Predict the 3D structure of the following.
Amino acid sequence: MSDRSAIEWTEATWNPTTGCDRISAGCDHCYALTLAKRLKAMGSPKYQADGDPRTSGPGFALTLHPDTLRVPYGWKSPRTVFVNSMSDLFHAGCHSTTSSRSSR
C-alpha cells in the first residue's frame, strides 16, 4: 500500500488483500504475479505465502491483511485510489464481508 503512487491515473494504492489464482487466459500476462515473486525474494512481509503452483505462484497466495482495512480512514484528504492493485477483491476466496468492509 502506498499513500502515493507512480501510476499516472491514481494517487494511492491500497491492498487489503494480496494474491490471486489464474482462472482464464486473461490472467496469462498478470503483472501482479510477476511482481509478487520479486517482492517475496526481497522479503516483503505481505508476499511470503506461496500460492498453488498450478494456479498461482511464489508469494501470491490469496491473503487478507486485516490490519490494512482501516488505513483509508486515516487519510485527511480525498484521493483517487487503486484498490487491490495486487489482488482480486472479488476472488472466490474473499469473504463477502471483506469486500463490503473495504468499499465503505
